[in-house]
Amino acid sequence: MNASSVTNNQSNPVATDPDIGDILAALLVALLIICTLITNCLVCVTFYLFKDLRTVCHYFVISLSAADILVAVVAMPFWCALQLTSMRWLFGESLRTFWNCMDILCGTASIMNLTAVSIDRHAAITEPFNYQSVMTSFRAISMIIFVWFYSIVVSGLRLAPWPTKTSYMHFVSATSFFIPLFIMIIMYTRIYLVARKQAHRMRNGRNYASDVKAAKTIAILIGLFVFCWGPFFAIVLSIAHDETVVVPHSLFNVIKWMVYCSSCLNPIIYSCLNRNYRRALRKLCQRVLKKREMVTETSSNTGVRPKARGSSFTVSTVDYDNNVGERNGGCRRNSLVLDSVTISDSQRVVETKW
């Protein structure tokens, strides 16, 4: 979240010339900012343009993208500036306090939105035929509001008086990492067990492959989260137990970069690997390319506009994914984190694919 207790935290306003390593580190952070904005903005654009994606189950993904965009806009730029000053803060104490609080808010919001996604996917898998009544629009929006309120409270409490300097470190580690991680492990473990149980009811010879693929997907989700955030909170807890711990500048740079990387990877894992989002992105790219071709052809024909079919850039959702299959309150069951998993009951059998 912030580097105030971990790095060479000097408030000396005397700037030093950055070396080549600092410049490269700043360029990497700048590149990460651009990638994070592109991937998350694409998720928001496809959600806005394609009506088939405006469903309850995608509310959580949009909230996650909003949190990650906030990370790229508010938190990362200050970290990029720190790379050029050898971790010397040159912007005043008030702005540093603001950045620390916003860094905690953005990080907590991103993590809590990941937790909300896992809860929503758990409801979709364990209650596939009651999902519409279980996860209503009101409940989904209420969960999202709670996630952001929770994040604001956690970050705001940094300004409150604490018994010791390390008390808040323990608090934020528990509320922003370990509790969400515990919830996600429970949710995804139950998803796997339920999906495995249902898949074994089908005798199509694909049970083992489905189990392996589902397990790999869930392992990737949880493993990526722990990989990105685990080292950071390990350092936070180390300092909380021993304030004399000094983390090298270069090591903390790598760990902080991994934290920010999660904001770039989240839309890829939770959105772009979703079949509906892939189709929407492909259709959007086709529309853009077709529009560019028509503009080029028009300019080369001395102002005579060709009447080519499909030259309009209007994004139509009527022809998008007509064969969407069975839905739960507008939310497809195949927008899950599993691949080739079968959900069944005594009357109906529905195959869901990621």
Automatic annotation (TrEMBL):
UniProt keyword DNA-binding present: no
Subcellular localization(s) per the UniProt record: Cell membrane
GO cellular component: plasma membrane
Domain of life: Eukaryota
TM stretches of this protein: 23-50, 57-85, 97-119, 140-159, 171-193, 214-237, 257-273
GO MF terms, alphabetically ordered: G protein-coupled serotonin receptor activity
Record membrane topology: Multi-pass membrane protein
Domain G-protein coupled receptors family 1 profile, first and last residues per copy: 39-270
CDD domains: 7tmA_amine_R-like (cd14967)
Family indicated by similarity: Belongs to the G-protein coupled receptor 1 family.
Name of the featured protein: Alpha-1A adrenergic receptor
Organism: Acropora cervicornis (Staghorn coral)
